[in-house]
Amino acid sequence: MSTRTLITGGLVITASDELPVDVLVEDGRVAALATRGSHGWTADRVLDATGKYVIPGGVDAHTHMEMPFGGTLASDSFETGTRAAAWGGTTTIVDFAIQPKGGTLAEGLDTWHEKAAGRCAVDYGFHMIMSDVNESSLKEMDTLVSSGVTSFKLFTAYPGVFFSDDGQILRAMQRAGANGGLVMAHAENGLAIDVLVEQALARGERDPRHHGEVRKALLEAEATHRVIKLSQVAGAPLYVVHVSAREAVAELTRARDDGLPVFGETCPQYLFLSTDNLAEPDFEGAKYVCSTPLRPKEHQEVLWRGLRTNDLQVVSTDHCPFCFKGQKEMGREDFSKIPNGMPGVENRMDLLHQAVVDGHIGRRRWIEVACATPARMFGLYPKKGTIAPGADADIVIYDPHAEQTMSARTHHMNVDYSAYEGKRVTGRVETVLSRGVPVIDDRVYTGRAGHGSFLRRDLCQYV
């Protein structure tokens, strides 16, 4: 049966407009927008958004649910992680399937399909991590693109795990240039970092803060420069993930000023946290170990400026949670054994709204970096990332005046700490629709595992 929902009285905010209009949802899609009092629409359900924002559901293009790393597994499953995403106003995630070493891309993709199928509360897609670049996997890239997995991640970091050398990266970029795929790069000089790790441990430097000290900003910048040049040689676009250092931003800015199709993503942890957190006593700093690492506070303003000038286009989370007890503690005597990753899928939309309150970005830019641009970057727009006729009715009613305190006691991520414990923010998700279905209804979870559908993605819409 046809179902109609009317959202009335709110301010609709997209990447391009702020309009005091009503939204009609029919059969899971946005049917129409019209000025209040001008339409006479009837609906099965009316949601009063008076005094609230009506925004597109967030698109988090960088998550790692159930990811194996460092002898353990990320603590959020697809079920718990997508439920937490919904609580935070995110209605689409793009997670990373991993090619097993010595195996095929198809094997990795099948494994991730098995993990996610029937378990997600919101819609999801996959990128593919290529951990073994060879003639066979290069040919498979074409097959994946045609099946809706249109982006491929390569690493200049983690020798022996995910690392690819320059020749392998170039070959993958050339293939993507031919088939329309987008190469994503984790840009740190992993070989040099391993030398610095070995030397630090030999000096007895074992605390979490040394994780940030050995993963130097210059080594992020060098690798960023290198993958940009490789993409230029290949004639292919490039998306650099989790940019944390001002020196790396400078490399992206230079490339974009030269007209290259190079894009950059940063994450809330780099905008709101710093090496001060890594240096917290009693091993508390382990909570903030991620790669690229947190940087000194002076890097933050450069990242904010990059978001304002569009030298950085996307804010994703790199959500990869590990519990403090039993997981982060694996590195209590050796920082290099601390699982790399932080929770954040539930916090992103609220933190970025706080950035609006603080004057770092405007309201439309908030929606642009968190919803519209990731949807365009990864072939999901205008189905996702906007509120317009024909789009999926992934819609959040957001209270811009509500105050909340972030805490592990109240969040819904399956992890025993919050990276933002005690942080007060203004703004809170009230109601979330995923394809027109209430997942959060006036601060009550009404979703279910299995509602979320796999998204076959088109090509990047920026190239």
Kindly describe this structure:
The chain has 463 residues and is α/β, with parallel strands linked by helices. The strands form four sheets. An eight-stranded parallel beta sheet has the order 8-11-12-13-14-15-16-17. The protein has a six-stranded mixed beta sheet with strand order 3-2-7-18-19-20. Helix 4 crosses helix 7. It is globular, with a radius of gyration of 21 Å. The model has no long low-confidence stretch (mean pLDDT 98).
Question: What would a concise description of this structure say?
Answer:
The chain has 463 residues and is of the alpha/beta class.
Major beta sheet, specifics? 8 strands, parallel
Q: Looking across the biggest beta sheet, what order are the strands in?
A: 8-11-12-13-14-15-16-17
Number of helices, where a helix is a run of at least 4 consecutive DSSP H or I residues: 13
Strand content: 15-25%
Radius of gyration: 21 Å
Distance from first to last alpha carbon: 40 Å
Structural class: alpha/beta
The residue-averaged pLDDT reads 98
Quantity of strands, as a count: 20
Uncertain segments: none
